[in-house]
Amino acid sequence: MTTVFVTGASSGFGAAFARRFAADGARVVACARRADRLAALGPDVLPLVVDVRDRAAVAAAIEELPASHAEIDILINNAGLALGMEPAHRADLDDWEQMLDTNCRGLMNCTHAILPGMVARRRGHVINIGSTAATYPYPGGNVYGATKAFVRQFSLNLRSDLHGTGVRVTCVEPGMVGGTEFSVVRFGGDAERAGGLYDGMVPLTADDIAEAVHWAARQPPHVNVNTVELMPVAQSFAPFQVHRQPG
Ligand SMILES: NC(=O)c1ccc[n+]([C@@H]2O[C@H](COP(=O)([O-])OP(=O)(O)OC[C@H]3O[C@@H](n4cnc5c(N)ncnc54)[C@H](OP(=O)(O)O)[C@@H]3O)[C@@H](O)[C@H]2O)c1
Which terminal Cβ of the chain has fewer Cβ within 10 Å, N or C? Predict the structure, then answer.
């Protein structure tokens, strides 16, 4: 039986991953800070209340997993957030630090605690949730996009380090996904502003991302899906902006 460890499982993508793999018969460890939300995932999922930014707490929680769930086959590093959309010169430094601590340090903490076991067992799959923001800049994306560029490059570098171990690494990079708490969190709880982002368009859903993650995980052992980038059809690219002098 496969054991899957999902971070950020109390909402959005992470909850969809937990449900998807549990429905498949996998053992799922679901990690986040909000215990009540994790409990709502049902009795088939083992809740793990931990803040991924807390290095010692992450290491201890993983060390203390019950033997039934200790041999993790799939680590899904999904916990993450964007805070604010102000240009860099007006952004809040605390927001920048929280994004860095969660999206980069949190992902490092979980990977560092779980990877040695995978290598020792010569099997495993690290699936990191990046973003199109890693590759395509946008106004107000500043540190959020930079943290996701870290996720992308860390994923590729892990593949080099894990050469010959049998452990796989995938980075899944979605564009706009609706129906999660992502934009509400980004706009400090302003649900109306968050909802407005998706007016008149059909975004991806958390289940679409779960499908991509599940597909990557279910490939035969000789196949490594390096990167999956997906967007809603309604989202695409625009030309570079050009600032012109008046007159
Ligand atoms: N939605 C999008 O458009 C989109 C697009 C591309 C990429 N992404 C990425 O996809 C991932 C999931 O996003 P989502 O849309 O599902 O957002 P979401 O609904 O806000 O879920 C974020 C999850 O991360 C958890 N989390 C945040 N800080 C944490 C911490 N310090 N320790 C442990 N867990 C923490 C939250 O749980 P607690 O608050 O309970 O701890 C929550 O379960 C993020 O990495 C995000 O950057 C989202």
Answer: C
